[in-house]
Amino acid sequence: MSTASAYLSIRGIDVDVIYKDIKNLHIGVYPPLGRVRVAAPKRLDDDQVRLAVIQRLPWIKRQREQLKAAPRQSEREMTTGESHYVWGVRKRLKVVERPGRAHFEPDGDRLVLYVPPGTDAEKRRSYLDQWYREQLRHALPDVITTWEGKLGVTVPKWSIRRMKTKWGSCNRETRHIWFNVELAKKHPDCLEYIVVHEMTHYFERNHGERFTTLMDQHLPDWRSRRDQLNAAPLGAEEWE
Fold first, then answer.
1. How many CB atoms within 10 Å of residue 30?
2. Is-contact 163 179, C-beta < 8 A?
3. Of all helices (H) and strands (E), which one includes residue 90?
4. Helices 188-200 & 222-231 angle (0-180, nearest 10)
5. Distance separating alpha carbons of residues 139 and 146, to the nearest angstrom
6. Element (H, E) at 140
């Protein structure tokens, strides 16, 4: 797929535009502060894209305000007393230094990290990242299997990775789906929404009317789940 790009400033909002061999125009607003990106058919010119963005400005501004208002965690130092989110629930970290294998244990409203003495913050953060990935690897199979049955399709391969601008991604050719590791911090309803969203791309590449119709048909409350996901506390990392 050949592409071209442009940068537009539209009524004080910076917009990145990518022109692709696609049928419909798609506008996205991305965390942390609401960067606007447009995927536009190559048949459109900058003026037509500008008009489309202006027509969607009320929606874009609402999305940007929602992202800017979302609570954010400072970078985690991985010390006792810090807050961490697990499946949408806020937990207090307790660090226990002792010899042996590093691991996490949920304990009520606490998340206990056992680490060898002298383990630095960077290493502790890497343990947390690994633990979040384990939570997703445990949760995803049941959700995917459920929706394979409902949608009548199979997901041949899925992976977990840290993504800067998306909660999920789907390659329609290989049918490979990727999930953002950050989803382990969000409510399980948000994870299900992303699973259905990405699987729906098997039927429709773009986020146009047909895609919306399919989402309405299979997951009628998807908009509230999307809003819940975007309103949840964001991590400290700088999303691109």
1. 19
2. no
3. strand 89-97
4. 120
5. 12
6. helix 121-151
Element (H, E) at 8: strand 3-10
What are the pLDDT digits (tens) for 36-71?
Answer: 889 999 999 999 999 999 999 999 988 888 777 665
The torsion angles phi and psi of 194, rounded to 5 degrees, stand at -65, -40
Helix (H) or strand (E) holding 212: helix 209-218
Q: Which residues contact 77 (CB under 8 A, 6 or more apart)?
A: 121
Q: Is the peptide bond between 116 and the residue preceding it cis, with omega within 30 degrees of 0? A: no
Span 21-33, pLDDT tens digits = 888 999 988 766 6
Which tokens hold the place of 219?
């997951």
Looking at the DSSP assignment, which residues form a beta bridge with residue 89? 86
